[in-house]
Amino acid sequence: MKLWKRAAAAIKDRKSLLAVGFSRRNSSYRNADLEAAIIKATSHDDSSVDYSNAHRVYKWIRSSPLNLKTLVFAISSRVNHTRSWIVALKSLMLLHGVLCCKVPSVVGEIRRLPFDLSDFSDGHSCLSKTWGFNIFVRTYFAFLHHYSSFLSDQIHRLRGNNRRSLEKSDSVIQELERIQKLQSLLDMILQIRPIADNMKKTLILEAMDCLVIESINIYGRICGAIMKILPLAGKTEAATVLKIVHKATSQGEDLIIYFEFCKSFGVSNAREIPQFVRIPEEEVEAIEKMINSVQEKPEPGKEEEEVEDEKAIVVLEQPKKLQTIITDKWEIFEDDYRCLDRRDDEYHQNHLPLIVTNQPVYITYTMPDLITF
């Protein structure tokens, strides 16, 4: 029966490739080579991932934003006509890689995903065998759907900010909103995991490899953004800042649990669990007191206190100890999405996700925004 299913799946992929061959003659605006690479990268084979064709898709997208139309057409058609969890998951992984190609014109236009897998259900096996895969696909789709929209909004926001100058308070509010959205995205990633006993398959492990890297990436952005916003936040933003700090501390603990689960499941990128450094409670209390005093008016005759109030707070984490340093220079942050304006071709040369080493992850450490498969 398994052999028959594999043969039937291979025939379906072959028919799709033949259809692309006919479209080459009948359509001038579609890129048949790109469509063929998409079909091969999202085949029905659950025993392997076609890295070479996935990278061909990325090269086509980086070569010209005009190929986005073909990508959206081909992958949405592929997903909308399938009832296979394998094809659905490979399509999500392929689009995840496209979002990491760092091409603003492409990421900015994708916005939300061109298909809906929120109620996906595999139609090739009984529900008792596929319910875990169905949930995995749905939760992965939910994350990627919001992640795509988030990246697009950030690019359009950057373009708008470049045309006009923002007040410092407006910049702080925008940055706080961005951090909260990143924290929501991290919560979504932590929900994506295999929950059925029959899910230890190559494709699931490959998907988890990508998600482990993305979780570290997003957590690194959150921590880096918190470090940059602390010197700029005033009394009015103090409550939001502290809420974000507490949330980041909690998410660091959740990430450790997530890594431990991934390690026990056999995810290669979780073989060594990073040491996530948290902000001690006494330092959180110090941050609260300092932020609340930034915009307070000093009492008459207390010039020294006024000088102290105008100074900024910077929290530095080191392997053995956390220090609070006072400085009279405000730190000006740049949106980390400016990196989308730069290409990183070396990232796409590797076929497998990066391996996470057993090194402490400090608040000041920025993880690479990379996913490779």
UniProtKB/TrEMBL annotation:
Domain ENTH: 26-158
Main location (coarse class): cytoplasm
Molecular function terms from GO: 1-phosphatidylinositol binding; adenylate cyclase activity; clathrin heavy chain binding; phosphatidylinositol-4,5-bisphosphate binding; SNARE binding
Keyword Membrane included in the entry's annotation: yes
Keywords per UniProt: Coated pit, Cytoplasmic vesicle, Endocytosis, Golgi apparatus, Membrane
Signal peptide: none
Locations listed in the record: Cytoplasmic vesicle, Clathrin-coated vesicle; Golgi apparatus; Membrane, Clathrin-coated pit
Listed InterPro entries: ANTH_dom, ANTH_dom_sf, ANTH_N_plant, AP180-like, ENTH, ENTH_VHS
Pfam families per UniProt: ANTH
Gene Ontology terms: biological process: clathrin coat assembly; clathrin-dependent endocytosis; defense response to fungus; vesicle budding from membrane
GO cellular component: clathrin-coated pit; clathrin-coated vesicle; Golgi apparatus
Protein name (database record): ENTH domain-containing protein
Species per Swiss-Prot/TrEMBL record: Arabidopsis lyrata subsp. lyrata (Lyre-leaved rock-cress)
